[in-house]
Amino acid sequence: MASGWGITGNKGRCYDFWMDFSDCMSRCREPKDCTLLREDYFECLHHSKEFRRRNRVYKEEQRQVRAAAEKAKGGGHDVHH
Questions:
Q1: Which residues contact 18 (CB under 8 A, 6 or more apart)?
Q2: pLDDT tens for each residue of 53-77
Q3: d(CA 22, CA 34)
Q4: Checking CA distances to 71, which of 5, 15, 32, 56 falls within 20 to 30 Å?
Q5: What is the number of other CB atoms lying within 10 angstroms of the CB of residue 45?
């Protein structure tokens, strides 16, 4: 993982993030000083923020499709009783 070698024998995709985080941790007074670099490294490894964002976008798209279909189904008129 942090060795620097990827599966193709080249530098790993997250190695630069690891080096930034590692350098920060070796120089900082408190680990919390490196929180943003840690987040960048973890995001590179796991893509959790990216997946959450994609999921939110997908859910919103689906909501809009359902709303449009419901509006078309009802003839586009809002009927209030």
A1: 1, 2, 4, 12, 41
A2: 999 999 999 999 999 999 998 865 5
A3: 9
A4: 56
A5: 14
